[in-house]
Amino acid sequence: MKKDRKQEFSPKAQQKKADKIGVKDGLIVAHHGVAVEVLFNSGERRMVRSKRNSGHVVGDDVSVTGEVLKRLPRKTELRRKDARGGIHLVAANLDVLGIVLAPLSPASFIDRAIVAARAAGLIPFLVINKSDLAATAELVALVNAVYADCVEIFTLSAAMQSGLDPLKTFLSQGHRGVFVGNSGVGKSSLLNAICPEIDLKVGEINLFNGLGRHTTTVSTLHSLASGGELVDTPGFRDFGLVEISVEDLAEHFPGFEEHRNIACKFRNCRHRTEPGCRVVELVKSGNITTERYETYINLLDEVETAETESRNREWGK
């Protein structure tokens, strides 16, 4: 009897076909350079070889046939640019981004990470670590003064195991996130405190420059006992913006949220010298500080330069 074509292409029939040829769907939970560890939907884990330039990252949903990886469509992806202009994909299919701070953290890192997260469709939040240190009090006051109305802020001490519960509660709401921050802010200590079974190596701080060593060399995804997932990534000191347009920056820069209900005169306003700019009016009235506006202008100069260089490259082809 001839098989009904609808039955042939039904989900059940397709799954049987996939099982027959050995196709398995799963999630990349660790990246080791020349291989990735895949957690399959069946619960099985195994290593699958992967080329270094394959583009696969932790958080990718994949389909595996034998030793062949096929990446499934991503919902989100977070990228950054290093000091040399190299572009790095941090992780895929995240929905939140935790920006970890400690004394001596560069202020510009926060704004870049928030803009990158929002432009990628992620919810950013700040984690101020090392609250047990006297030097952190000044950082807490500064960060709350600037960002309290923009993002959620968690103040804690990973080393002392204090202040962790609010962050755990937040992550347990089904979030998959990643912590980013300069080396030395205590990302590994924080992950150990939240997920002690992973037992990450914690590096020493350089007493000369206050920066830490990169103690994580492999990206991994961890499920939390209280719910939620976290990706651990190697540390880095730069968070350059990747393919962020002027419009993206103007929309997502932290501290400009107040103008959203009252639009600027021009839809594509850059908040520089355009007439009828709501942001400039808020700066003049003191609702946005001059310092925040100057920080925005510095980033705007950078984004405009990147856009010009990109156009010149296209014209040169």
CATH topology of the largest domain: Rossmann fold
Q: Kindly report how far apart the N and C termini lie.
A: 59 Å
How many individual helices? 9
Anisotropy-based shape: globular
Look at the structure and give the mean pLDDT: 84
* Helix-strand string: HHEEEEEEEEHEHEHEHEEHHH
Overall number of structural domains: 3
Which key features would you list for this structure?
eleven-stranded mixed β-sheet, alpha/beta, two-stranded antiparallel sheet, 317 residues, Rossmann fold, Ribonucleotide Reductase Protein R1, domain 1, SH3 type barrels, 3 domains
Question: How would you sum up this structure, described in words?
Answer:
The protein is an alpha/beta fold and about 325 residues long. It has 3 domains: about 25-75, SH3 type barrels (Roll); about 75-230, P-loop containing nucleotide triphosphate hydrolases (Rossmann fold); about 245-315, Ribonucleotide Reductase Protein R1, domain 1, CATH 1.10.40. The protein is about 30% helix and about 20% strand. The strands form 2 sheets. Strands 1, 2, 3, 4, 5, 8, 9, 10, 11, 12 and 13 form an 11-stranded mixed sheet that branches. It has a two-stranded antiparallel ribbon with strand order 6-7. The radius of gyration is 22 Å and the shape is globular. It starts with a helix and ends with a helix.
Would you spell out the secondary-structure blueprint of this structure?
Layout (H helix, E strand, L loop, with lengths): L4 H4 L2 H11 L1 E9 L3 E6 L4 E5 L11 E5 L2 E4 L5 E5 L5 E6 L3 E6 L5 H13 L3 E6 L7 H12 L4 E4 L9 H7 L4 E5 L6 H8 L24 E5 L5 E4 L13 H7 L25 H8 L4 H27 L1
Parallel strand pairs: 8-9, 8-11, 9-10, 11-13
Antiparallel strand pairs: 1-2, 1-4, 1-12, 2-3, 4-5, 6-7, 12-13
